[in-house]
Amino acid sequence: MPDVWHALSVKQPWAALLVGGRKTIEVRTWGVSRRGRVLIHAAKIPDARPEGWAHLDSPELKALAGTRGGILGVAHFASCVRYDTPAAFAADGERHFNAPDWFRPPRLFGFVFENARPVRFEPWPGNTFFFAVPGYTLPEEPIAAPEAPASPVIWVEPPEGFRKGFPAP
Known about the structure:
This protein has helices at residues 14-19, 50-53, 59-65, 86-91, 93-96, and strands at residues 5-10, 25-28, 36-42, 70-83, 108-123, 130-133. By secondary structure, the protein is an alpha+beta fold. The chain has a six-stranded mixed beta sheet with strand order 2-5-4-3-1-6.
């Protein structure tokens, strides 16, 4: 178990879809080199776009999507994929659930998650980028990292003014 957990805040319904294993890639405009177990945090403000809500096809996912403003799951952050073209972005559409026209040049990044699962919801303030969750104890036994090695690391310089709250391994 890590000394200090780190979390990624994701708007609902995307957080529920990620924790429920339906969505396996979270798209961002920035990349990171960190890998390993990460807490999934449900942001306080949901995404109003109807596309995500249409994927909630079970009572469990709908209940998970109703939680906001706290930790709701844990997953293994396996890799960071770089999308340099709309075609590359569209090719993973079934994994990130974003329409092809959502791509914005010069690039986007896909955070690939594996072995996601829900945990007992715990209210917690969120943050932009990855953020430390000091003092957090996983309520259940954490998931094991996958047997296969992670993909090669892609280092991307953070944007100017980036808070370094998520140190490299």
